Amino acid sequence: MAGVLIDPTRAPVAFGRRAVPQLFEELQRPETGRRRRALASLCDLVHDPERLYQTVNGGFLEQLKVLLTDEDPSLRAKTCDLLHLLTAHSVGRQALLSSSILPPLSQLLNDSSSSCRRNVHQVLNRLAQLPAGADALLTLVPKLMLKLREEEEEEEEVQVLLLSTLSCCSRLDALPALASDGVSLLQRKLSHRSTNVRREAAAAMMALSVPEDGKRQVCEEAVLPVLVDLLQDEDVEVQANAAGVIMYTVVITTGKQQCLDLDVVPVLLHLASKKKEEEEEEDVERRRRRKALVMYSLRALTALAEAPDGRRLLLEQLPLLVERSEAAEEDRDIRRAALTAVRVVTWTP
C-alpha cells in the first residue's frame, strides 16, 4: 500500500521492496510533475544502502539514461543528482561504469542548466576517484580540457570539480591532457583568486609534469616562475603541489637551469628545514600535507644538487640538510630524503 503523500514535492512511496520499482514505474509516466516527484522520492530512498543496491542492480539505470535527454531541465538536473547519490557507494560507481550511461551524461557538460552541469561534474569526479573510473573518463579528457578553457566565469565549485577530475585522470595517464594543451590551460588557473582552484590546478599540473613531454612543456610555457611564487602561498597544499611540479621538472637540465635562475634554492631550503616543533599543534591532515611539502622540497634540492651551481649553493647551506638528516625525532622518510640530499651535495668524483 502506498504511503500518505505529505510533501507535495515527493511521490508517495510503497512499502518495503516495492518502493523502488513503484517509483521507477512513475518515471515512465508522461506527466513531468509526476516524474519530478518520483525522482525526488528516489533521491531520499537511496540514502538507504539497501534501496541503493536495489536501484543499481534492478535493471533501472537504463530508465535514468532516458531521463538525461528529457526536455525539462529540472528533470535532467535531478537525474544527475540521483546519479551523484548513487556514486557515493562503491556498488553504485561500479554499476555506472558497467552501464552505457557515461556518453549521454557527458553530453550534459554543455547543458543550459547550471545546476545540471554542476551535478554532472560531481558524478564524474566521484567516478574518477576509482582507477577504473579514471580510465573510463580518459576519452573525455579533451572535452574536459575544452570546458576548462570555456569555464572562466563558471562557479568556483564547478572549476574545482573539473580540475580534480582532470588530476585523477592525468595521474593515470597524462598524455591525453598534454595533447590537449593542458599545461597552458592549467597555468592560467595557478594564479586564480580562489585557494581551492589554485590547489587543484597545481595538483593537476603535478600529474602532467611526470612524463618527459610534460616536463618540457612546463619549461617552455614559463610555468616555473608561477610555481616558485606558489611556494609561498598561504595554503600548505598549494605549496606542496607547486613543490611537486618543481621536483619533477628539475629532473631535466632545462628545468634545473630555469629554477636556478629563479633563485629557488633558498625558498626550497626554508621549506625543507622547517622545524618539527613548529608542527606539533597541527592536526593529522595538516601534518600529512606538511610532510609532502618537505619531501618534495628535499627531492627537488637533491636534483638541483646535480648541477654545479646548485651544488655550490647547497654546500654553503649543508648544515641545514645534515641537521634534518640526523634528527632522532624526525620522520623516517624525511630523514632518508635529507640524507640522500646530503650525499648528492657532498659527492665527489
TrEMBL record:
Q: Which Gene3D superfamilies match?
A: Leucine-rich Repeat Variant
InterPro entries in the record, alphabetically?
Answer: ARM-like, ARM-type_fold, Armadillo, RSP14, TPR_DAAF5
Q: Where is the Dynein axonemal assembly factor 5 TPR repeats domain?
A: 93-265
Superkingdom of the organism of origin? Eukaryota
Tell me what this protein is called: Radial spoke head 14 homolog
Please report the organism this UniProt entry assigns to the protein: Lates calcarifer
Gene name as annotated:
rsph14
